[in-house]
Amino acid sequence: MDKHNSPRPPAGRTAPLAAFMNLAKDAHRCDWERQLNKVLRQLGFSSYLISLGPATPRDTDPLAGLITTFPKRWLDHYRGDGLIDIDPILRHCRRELVPFFWDRERRRARGRSRHFWQQRELYGLRSGLSIPLRYELLRGTLSVALDDTDITEPDAFSNPAVYQLFMLIPYLLAGMSHQLRGPAPPRQDLTPKELDCLYWASAGKTTWEISHILTCSERTIDFHLLNARRKLGSVNRQQAVGAAAAFGLVMPTVTPAVHALKKTTH
């Protein structure tokens, strides 16, 4: 065949190999998840779910440990309606190694499985692909929702973004292996102000309320909480508070600020 007449590869989104390699590095959880989100968005997958855990989960929460951008309302419905018991994606990815195309399975579904797919469609999760993940004795999945309606299996494999998704797997697992070693010990250089801010945030106080309790500006409170988040490797205020509490860093100690608050409440 004349090389000038050979077919060109189909158009699609790509991501640089360097971005994949960065995912394999050991990093703080928030930085790693931010990099993962960036890579998947570069490939065109803004809606995704990643899980990796024991083959027989012991946690009562079926969504514990997920990394996902799927709609929160769908996740709440999945948990509340007990859809984990009829989830064909989960069942497939625990038993098989080949990819799972949603459209084909959705069209073949009957009974309770059909109900599962109908519920997903209500939340915009109609077409997609799930790739089984394996790491040591752990099982999981990388699932991405596709914008194309009723995309066929041949179409997916001819899409550059999809076959790059398969290339991503070893780098993804290498990065997750670092995260699975357990949370890194929190940095012990949290300042007294950062600890005070975390304490009052754990009590449900807003930035404005904390600024009045600690007699400083709201910008200063946000600054201290942002530094605490970074030191604890957390992606948001709630996660930082949870991490600080888990490591015993946030305790209801009696500080001048606490004394002042007590005086105003008595």
From TrEMBL:
GO biological process terms held by the UniProt record: regulation of DNA-templated transcription
Keyword field: DNA-binding, Transcription, Transcription regulation
Gene3D superfamilies: Transcription factor LuxR-like, autoinducer-binding domain (3.30.450.80), Winged helix-like DNA-binding domain superfamily/Winged helix DNA-binding domain (1.10.10.10)
Residue ranges constituting the HTH luxR-type domain according to the UniProt record: 183-248
MF GO annotations: DNA binding
Protein name, per record: LuxR family transcriptional regulator
Native source organism of the sequence: Pseudomonas chlororaphis
